[in-house]
What we know:
mainly beta; seven-stranded mixed β-sheet; four-stranded antiparallel β-sheet; 63% strand
Amino acid sequence: QVQLVESGGGLVQAGGSLRLSCVASGSIVGINQMGWYRQAPGKPRELVAMSISGGIRNYADSVKGRFTISIDHTKNTVYLQMSSLKPEDTAVYYCNANILTSWVSRNDYWGQGTQVSVSS
């Protein structure tokens, strides 16, 4: 079984910064991709940033230039450095990972979510 545990959310003023972390633990053979989604009240969940094996990083247009995703494979941990935060970044941020638990099995996993609130 695999678990994703997020940390680092909180309340910050507009223009401020936060760093989210997500640690994957359990029976992990490898990680295909690991990243972040967010969901604001009344809105669908959306991709924020994703780190894909091979060094590919994808970002939502709304966060390009402000957010940076990085991954430490030695710690099975993904980070999201968020800068120049805006009130519209307020949401619950979810960690997502596609993980191999054996050489023939891979699945998607989700964290429990961490709240990010940006005040104007």
